[in-house]
Amino acid sequence: MDSARDPRDLRFPKPEEPDDRLPALMGEIRDGSGSALQELMDRLWEELVRYAAWEVGEIDVAKDLVQGAFVYLWEHRRSWINVGSPRAYLYRIVQHRVIDYQRHRSVRTEWARREESRPRRGPPTPADVLAEKEVQEAFDQAMAGLPPRRREAFYLVALRGLSHREASEVLGISLQTVANQVSAALQAIRTAIRRVSDSAS
Q: Do the beta carbons of residue 61 and residue 102 sit within 8 Å?
């Protein structure tokens, strides 16, 4: 996945794709425009696959689930109402397909993160490799230890760049609950990474 992020860099990114064009695309899709559906897929495909892959742990399965989500969107296009974020609406469709998949099949629940490839000024020293590995392990363990809803809120907001409002629509919880969950997740992850950094110094 290309969604790997340095766990020490916990700044909140801007959403990958602004919503300005999405409502118009959804309206065109509702009216039967296949080209609008293709444009929507071009805009959201990658991030939705990342989201599904993070949930199910398999990229091929994630692509199938997202493909099915767009098929579902097309088949039910006339039922779409211009309320809320179209982006969050697509995330919800994918989320429901992920839940259905996990209900009917035995899949691993923890995402095996790809080895991080950050640009370096020079070849890493053995100490650099060890320190980075320890930080990544601390991040993974902290993420795995979060309650499921907290982990998903953190993933959507801090790693995928959804707004709190979009995350609240996806998860079906209030804006304040999203903020509380993300804040608690950040605190837990930063504490875990700080322990590793302090022990290495």
A: no
Burial class (CB in 10 A: 0-12, 13-18, 19+), 178: buried
Q: What is the CATH number of domain 22-104?
A: 1.10.1740.10
| Residue 125, pLDDT score | 57
* pTM summary value: 0.54
Q: What was the pLDDT predicted at 45?
A: 94
The owner of tokens 């609008």 is: 36
Q: What are phi and psi of 115, to 5 degrees?
A: -60, 130
Q: Which CATH number describes the domain made up of 126-200?
A: 1.10.10.10
Distance (Å, rounded) from C-alpha 26 to C-alpha 86? 7
Closest CA to 74 of 44, 41, 42: 41
Q: Say which residues have a Cβ less than 8 Å from residue 28's Cβ, sequence separation at least 6.
A: 35, 36
Residues 105, 88, 148: CA angle, nearest 5 degrees = 50
- The pLDDT, as a whole number, for residue 56 is 85
Task: Tell me the residue type at 50.
Answer: R
Q: Of 32, 125, 144, which is closest to residue 77 (Cα–Cα)? A: 32
**pLDDT for the residue 161:** 76
Give the residue ranges of the chain where pLDDT is below 50: 1-5, 7-17, 106-118
